[in-house]
Design brief:
Helix 8 runs antiparallel to helix 9. The two termini are 64 Å apart. The chain is rod-shaped. It is of the alpha+beta class and 419 residues long.
Amino acid sequence: MGIIKAAINAVRGGLADTWLEVIEPAPMGEHTVIVPGQLVSQNGKSQNKKGSSNIVSNGSVIHVYEKQMMILVDGGKIVDYTADPGYFKVDNSSMPSLFNGQFGDSIKESFSRIKYGGVSSQSQHVFYINLKEIKNLKFGTTSPVQYYDSFYEAELFMRLHGSYSIKITDPFKFYQEVIPTEIITENKSLEFAGEFIRQYNEEFVTELGSAFNQYSADGNRISFITSKSKEMAKYMRDALDDEWREMRGFEVNAVSMGMPSYSDKSQAIIDKRAEMGASVSFLRDGANQQAYMAQNIAEGINAAGHNTGGAMNAFLGMGMAQNMGGNIMGGYMQNPQYVSQNGGQQQQQQPQQVVPAQQPQQAAPADGWTCTCGAVNSGKFCCECGSPRPAAPKKRFCGNCGAQLTEGQKFCPECGTKQ
C-alpha cells in the first residue's frame, strides 16, 4: 500500500462524486510533536463505517499541511510517508512513494531501518509529526554553575535560567527513539512538556557546563550572556550533538538566557572590579587627575587646620604624600595609552608647594571625616557636637557591563543598557 499525490481539483471532484473520507491532522499546539489523523467528510457524509477516525482504506485522501510529516503506520512500523504539503490518495496497488520533501534523500537511510517488512495491511493509521520549531521550553539550574571569566580573572558561580527551542531534524529517529509506544497504540497526541520533558531538561542543564567552558575559552564575558542567544544555541548543539541529533533526531534551535544570579562571593568580585574600572576610567583624563590631587591637598590643609598638635609633622607628611602623588601622576601621564589619548603630548604637572596660612595642626586620620561643625573625626560620632557620621552615598553599577552609574542615570553611559 502506498500514497499517490493528487491534484487538488481532482481530489475535490472525486470527493464530490464518491463521498470518500479525508484524513487531516488533529490540532497541534505550541509544544505538540505528534498527533493522530482525524476523519473529516464532504458535506458531513462519509463511507467510513468502521468506527475509527484514523484507519485508512483504499481510496482515502490524506491532507498534509506545511511543516508536517505524515506517516502511515502499520503495527508500529512506518510503511509510507510524505513531507510534501498537499493531498495524497491511498492506493493498495502501489508501492510506497516516499515523498522526502524538505529532507531530500537524507532520511532514506533512517527509513530503511524501521520500515514495515510484511504484506500490506488494511489497518493502517495516519500520524503527523510537527516539523515546526518547538518553542519556549523553560529551564533553570538548581545549583550554581561554575564559570571562569577571563575579564574578572576569577571563577564565578551563578544560577541560570531561560528557555530554549528544539527542531526535529530526523523524524524517523525521533519516532523510533523518543515517541512512546502507547502514543501510537492508543492513537494519542504527544506534547513536549510536563513529565515527558523532564529527562531532556535535565540533560540540557547538565550540558550547560560543557557549553559554558567553550564559551569561556572563546574569551566571552559572562555579563554579555543575555545578548548571545545564537552563540549559546551553537554551543548547546555541539554539547548535545551525540545525544539529541545523532541518536534522537532533534536538536537545539535557539537558547534565550536570563540575567545570571551570582553567589555572594562572585557578586563581590564583580562589584569590586566595576569600582576599580570606574576609578581607572576617571583618572585617564588629565583634568580629572589635577582635580583629584587638588581635592586631596585641600582636604589635607583643612584637616591640619583643625588638629590640636603635631601640625608640622602633619604638613611634612602631607608634603611627602603630595610628592608621591605627583610622581604617580607623572608616571601615569607617560603611559602610552594616556599619551595616545591626549594628542601624543606627554604632560607632567609638578605639584606646587603649599604654604600654610595659619598655625598648622595635626592631620586627620586616613579614614577621618569632617562634621558640619568643622571638627575632624575618625569615629562614628562627632567628638565636638555628637552628630553621627553621615552615611556614604550608595554606589550603583550597570548590571550588564559593570560601569559605575551616577544618581538618576536611567541608561548606562558605557553600553546603553536600561537600569
